[in-house]
Design goal:
The chain is of the alpha+beta class and about 130 residues long. It has 3 helices and 8 strands, in the order E-E-E-E-E-H-E-E-E-H-H. The strands form 2 sheets. It has a 4-stranded mixed beta sheet, with helices on both faces. Strands 2, 3, 4 and 8 form a 4-stranded antiparallel beta sheet that branches. A hairpin with a 5-residue loop joins strand 6 and strand 7. It is globular, with a radius of gyration of 14 Å. Pfam families: NUDIX.
């Protein structure tokens, strides 16, 4: 299936902790979302991360794409990045802000969204760990 990625997922580890957020409906997950009209997927990844966590990122590296099959099938680009700054009191959209978790905390978390339980997620996390 040849489909342009218009959704983004940002998977990054900073100071040995994963950047996550708690979505008000789905639960704990990596930040991400959909590119807006006229926006590049790189700009969408930066914007979504700021909006959902208050964390500003740079040096994006796109390392994967995958197709999500649901009511509306779409392609998601997966990025990792470097942290520039962390706003401790951000204006948030749809989430409760940044959650920083160690490997152990993430592995044992029972509040993960269904996105985080996808069979490809361990490979994605491993790629980021090897990249860092």
């Amino acid at each position: 299936m040849n489909m342009e990625a218009r959704h983004v997922l940002v998977v990054l580890k900073h100071k040995d902790k994963w950047l996550l957020t708690r979505h008000s409906v789905r639960g704990i997950e990596f930040p991400g979302g959909k590119a807006e009209e006229g926006e590049t997927i790189q700009d969408a990844a930066i914007r979504e991360t700021i909006e959902e966590t208050g964390v500003t990122i740079t040096d994006l590296v796109k390392f994967a794409e995958y197709v999500v099959v649901s009511n509306v099938t779409f392609c998601k680009a997966v990025f990792t990045a470097q942290v520039v700054s962390i706003d401790e009191n951000p204006q948030l959209h749809e989430t409760e802000g940044a959650l920083w978790m160690t490997d152990e905390e993430l592995n044992e978390c029972d509040e993960l969204s269904f996105h985080m339980k996808d069979a490809g997620m361990p490979k994605i996390r491993k790629w980021v760990e090897n990249y860092v």
